[in-house]
Structure formats: C-alpha cells, structure tokens
Amino acid sequence: MSRLRVHEVAPRDGLQNEAVALSTAAKVELIRLLIACAPQSIEITSFVRPDRVPQLADADDLCVRLQEQDWYRQARAQGLSCAGLVANAAGLDRLLAAGLDCVTLLVSASEGHSRANVGMGVEQALSSCLEMIDTARRAGLRTRAYVSMAFGCPIDGPTDPGRVLELAQAMAQAGSDQVILADTLGVATVEQTTGLVGAALDAIAAERLGLHMHDTSRRAVACCRAGIEVGVTALDSAAGGTGGCPFAPGAAGNLDTRALLQLGEEMERPTTLSAPALEQAEVFLRQQLQLPQPPQPHP
C-alpha cells in the first residue's frame, strides 16, 4: 500500500489562532525542526492582512530569512514543497515574491463564514479562487485548494454535502493539484466523512484529494481513519495539535501530527515522518506558545 502523505500546517494554521505570537526567529527554528520531521510538504505562513491575522504579520520577512538558511535551501532542492496561504491577488503577488512553490487557497462552503473570513459570498470567493489557480499554474506553482466548513459552520450550521462537492469539483476542473475537504470547525462524524469522501472520489482522483481535520469533537483521528479506508492518502496535521481558525468560533486545534503518525502505523500505511524529530519540534513549539508539555508515559 502507498504511504500517507503529510502536509504539516503548524507554522501557519497552528499559529494563527494562538494567544502568543512567535518571533520571526522562533518561526525559523520551528520550521527547521519540522522539516527535520520529513513531511512531504509544509505550510510556511499566510500572506493576508496583518490586522486580520497578526500572528503571521511577518510573512515576507520570514521567507527572506528562510532563504538565507542552508538547511532550507537543501530541503527545497530535495523536493520539499513549501506553501503559503493567500486570500486575494495581492497576497498571491507577495507569495510569488517570497519564492514559495505552492499556493494554498480556500473557499468556504458556508455563506456566513465566507463573508466573515474573506469578506465575499461563496460564488465571488470561488470565482476569485479559480482565477488564482490559473495564475499560479501559469507561474509554475502548485496549488492546494480547500473547501472549508465542509462538514459544518458556526454561523450557518450543518453544511450541504452537495454544495461541498460542487466547489471541490470546480477546483479540480480548474486544475488545482490538490483539493482538500476541511472540517474547519471539527464537527465531522465518521459516517459524514465516509460519505463525503466517497462521493468526492467519484469525481476527483484519489491522489488529488485530501483531508484537513480539526479535533474539536475528539473525532479527528477516527474521521481520518475513515477517509483513509475509503481511499484518501493526503492529510494535513499540526505538530502538537495546535491551531484553529480566528473566524470560526469554537474551533479547536488541528489533527496532531503525532496522532497521524501513529494512525499510519496502526493501519500499516506508514508515513515518512520521524518520531524523534517530531518530539523535538513539539517540545519547542509548546515552549514558545507557553503551553503545558504533555505527560510522559511511564516506563
């Protein structure tokens, strides 16, 4: 069986909703530690308005500093994909100048969340997303397009699966390299995940479909297991299970990368992740965010 492909989101989604804002130097060190864990790709930052997401206000400077690091240039040369999230054409211009190779885009399946998050209705947000997919592809960049609020929204309530599939298919048809179903609020059930992933795979090739799960309801691991059983191999996670969405009240952290590593081992679907390196990254991240370290197992 093929390996699970891990997209590490701690430097972006893992930091954007935390009370403590890391210094740029701390982010550089965090990214170094996370790259040592050997994910297939990593989300470096977000090129959005600083007043909207102040924790990531240093996106441009961060990328300049990363390009000065030998270990970063070596990882890129060896095939590590480095992504940044953008919300509009101005953000895409910044990403292009920053030298990243992958663009993260999102469209909410919820009208209320779309307006709260990007100030546009769903149709307008989709149109903008499809235009940026085209621009990014013509510039030689990879694209990751997310359908956020794919299972439920704190503003509009349960999400219509048909709407999610319409958005996902539009992104796939526009040529996005990956289309990711995102449980931004962390409310998905195993049954919902199985049904939505199965329906999406009828229209989108398995290697292009991914899952991004939050653990609000403590079902992220079970839902990822269900997605893998149906055919998904690409999953997002964050070291230490950090993060959340500032525009989705109630959303808890992301699927913990350690939990994903363990899930892959249990299912005999290994990842490329290094457990010792991941432990080092988690300890550093929790120290920087002033979070308690998890209890150590008894020998």
User: Considering the protein shown, what is the CATH homologous superfamily?
Assistant: Aldolase class I
Describe the sheet with the most strands: 8 strands, parallel, barrel
**How many angstroms separate the termini?**
33 Å
CATH class: Alpha Beta
Number of helices: 11
Would you write up a description of this structure?
With 299 residues, the chain is of the alpha/beta class. The protein has a single domain, classed as Alpha-Beta Barrel (TIM Barrel), CATH 3.20.20. 42% of the residues lie in helices and 17% in strands. It is built from eleven helices and ten strands. The chain has an eight-stranded parallel beta barrel with strand order 1-2-3-4-5-8-9-10, surrounded by eight helices. A two-stranded antiparallel sheet has the order 6-7. Strand 9, helix 9 (220-230) and strand 10 form a beta-alpha-beta unit.
